[in-house]
Every structure is written in structure tokens, then in C-alpha cells.
Known about the structure:
- The longest helix has 22 residues.
- This protein starts with a helix and ends in a 5-residue tail after the last helix.
- The chain has one domain.
- By secondary structure, the protein is mainly α.
Amino acid sequence: MSGKLWETARKRVYFLQRWPSTTSVKRVKQRVKELTPRAACHHDLRETIAKINPVIRGWGGYFATGNASTKFNQVDSYVWMRLRKLMRRAEPQAG
Length: 95
């Protein structure tokens, strides 16, 4: 029950306490990994992001209700890391 609303207006408002399971987070990370293979470093990064966006948005939309910010941050960090690796592989090596 919400504390502040109850104290001021005597309204009972309930919030859903739901977050993605560990299996669900692993599944979306696996899907991102499939969409960002090592060979994708030679593709335009915008195309790769366009492939990943529907997956991330769909997963995030499904778990948007509830308290999932920690899990969202984990997935966001993973996606950022994968894209960063692709960008670094695409850079010509100085040597």
C-alpha cells in the first residue's frame, strides 16, 4: 500500500511488486548476443542497434510494471558492453 497517499488522502493504492526472473534476464542477454555476433563489427552499428531495439523494447515493455530497475540496468549494461566490443573490433589496429 502506498504510504504518502494513505496519509494525506486516505486512498488505498496498491503497487505491483514484480521483476524479471534470472532466467528471463539470461534469455534476453542470449538474444542480444545472437544479434551481435563478432562478424557484425563490419556492419553499420546503426543496423545492429535497429535489430536489437525491438527485442529490448519488447522485453522492457513486458516488465515495465513493477520494480525492475535493477534488472533493466543489468541488461542495459550488457547491451552497452556488447556494442562497445563491436565498435572496438571495427577500429583499425595501430601497429
